[in-house]
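re: the backbone from monday

yeah here it is again, tokenized this time
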């Protein structure tokens, strides 16, 4: 894949705008990554960063845990976790993941944050999750130019797409919803039923490519080995983009999620 990820483009644009306005407030921050701390935050605090930087521009329908990486008092990025949207359909039963899988549904860092912020935030936030979550999964969207650079740097395993090649995405009054969000909010994902609720002219259903998926494993050595073995046959080499287009926020190390 070539080109820059959407989030990187957004960070560059916001930095340019703020410098043009003469507001380089971050230059007074202590941006030593060794001094940065990852700690829980509330959903409203996470929302401010997600709405500014994230590709989808909004929080997920259901959010269980939110974490931020702080440089002193300054919030440099957020990670948001919630239910894995296929779990209630029994999708993960065959892997033995039901009841212990969680989705890293949203994540973004400010343009001024240290280049290793996303990796430290990912690893640090996962360590703060309740012990019952032994499996963490995350998806990337090719429409946003994403290949999962941060997940690769954090030692996740890549399995590509395990969903049908094309997914129906529905937009209502200009707002695009996932099928999970539609079920949670309106009780249906049927374009016909949604058209009856909002008017056919206000509901647009279109196909999009399926997202690609990464996994990471937590807990003791035996649990990590067992859970990874369940998807070993699906693991593929990491996808790459042109070297000069790789986002800067990469930490060259692997993830240690032992309890």
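seq for it, each position gets an aa:
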């Amino acid at each position: 894949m070539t080109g820059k990820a959407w989030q990187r483009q957004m960070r560059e644009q916001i930095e340019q705008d703020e410098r043009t306005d003469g507001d380089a407030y971050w230059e007074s921050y202590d941006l030593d990554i060794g001094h940065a701390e990852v700690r829980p935050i509330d959903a409203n605090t996470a929302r401010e960063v997600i709405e500014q930087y994230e590709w989808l521009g909004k929080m997920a329908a259901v959010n269980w845990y939110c974490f931020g990486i702080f440089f002193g008092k300054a919030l440099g990025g957020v990670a948001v976790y919630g239910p894995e949207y296929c779990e209630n359909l029994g999708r993960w039963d065959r892997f033995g993941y039901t009841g212990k899988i969680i989705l890293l549904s949203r994540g973004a860092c400010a343009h001024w944050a240290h280049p290793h912020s996303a990796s430290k935030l990912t690893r640090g936030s996962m360590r703060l999750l309740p012990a019952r979550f032994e499996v963490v999964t995350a998806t990337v969207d090719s429409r946003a130019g994403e290949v999962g650079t941060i997940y690769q740097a954090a030692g996740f395993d890549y399995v590509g797409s395990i969903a049908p090649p094309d997914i129906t995405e529905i937009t209502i009054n200009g707002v695009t919803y996932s099928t999970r969000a539609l079920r949670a909010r309106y009780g249906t994902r049927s374009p016909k039923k949604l058209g009856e609720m909002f008017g056919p002219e206000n509901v647009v259903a279109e196909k999009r490519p399926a997202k690609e998926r990464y996994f990471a494993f937590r807990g003791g050595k035996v649990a990590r080995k067992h859970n990874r073995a369940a998807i070993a046959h699906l693991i593929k080499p990491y996808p790459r983009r042109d070297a000069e287009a790789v986002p800067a926020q990469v930490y060259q190390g692997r993830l240690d999620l032992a309890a």
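Strands lie at 37-41, 65-71, 74-82, 101-109, 135-140, 157-160, 166-172, 175-177, 203-209, 212-217. The first strand starts at residue 37 and ends at 41.
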